[in-house]
What does this fold into?
Amino acid sequence: MGGTEGNRSPHEEIAFLKQQLAQAQKMSALGELVSTTTHEFNNVLMTIINYAKMGLRHKDNATREKSFEKILAAGNRAARITNSVLGMARNRAGSQEPLNLTQLVEDTLLLLEREMNKYRIAVDKQFQPIPEAFVNGNQVQQVLLNLLINARQAMPGGGRLILKLLYDREEEMIDLVVRDFGCGIPADKLPRIFEPYYTTKAGPDASGKGGTGLGLSTCRDIVDSHRGRIRVDSTVGKGTAFTIKLPTVKHPAAQRAPAAPVVAVPAPLAGPPGIATGS
It folds into this structure.
């Protein structure tokens, strides 16, 4: 009963459609990443080709050694990009496991490096030493990509983006903060930003990326499934900060089966601790 199409209960049908929607959004995000990283791959290949030509033209050891070093560095960069994209592409189960969250953030930034440079976004990384998180890396990367692209779009003329990783010892949680200094979100719209289908974007920006209103709703579902929390603090004209709290391997949530994703319910959001509005 409920296992075949046509005799599902309303609750099962909603759950099924929600799963299909999440998969469709994942593939859409992957398509955007492929478009972005194709250009970066071309840059890497040009570096390899140019230094290979240099090594062939010049016979002295110093030039050849420099060429090999540049080729090796470019090859390693290409491998990191490939691994990050493949990690998103895998249709993995919703299992959670110990993960180096700092490395995941670095890999995600690598995927968006060209886009950030193109739109003159300076990324300020403020990473404290943190323990391993207990998360699904694929899902957390989807959340982070969504927040980073939103932050970039909030600063169409360029600007500064702060990324923080902090260890909350008292709660055994890791705080991941994405802070932009862009347009901000009006106070009357702030309580609704996690609602499905709600968006503050009028349409695609200069990069061709717009909003469906699904992104932040999905982000909240993912964070909830990790027994984490997501909070936002925003002031018009001064910027927006999202703080995600995720469990460490020592957190009680890591000792229990992961919670199933739930439908996001909008609620007033408090500002994240340690980030003053408009700072």
Notes: The chain has a mean pLDDT of 79. Strands lie at 97-99, 121-127, 133-135, 159-168, 173-180, 229-235, 239-247.
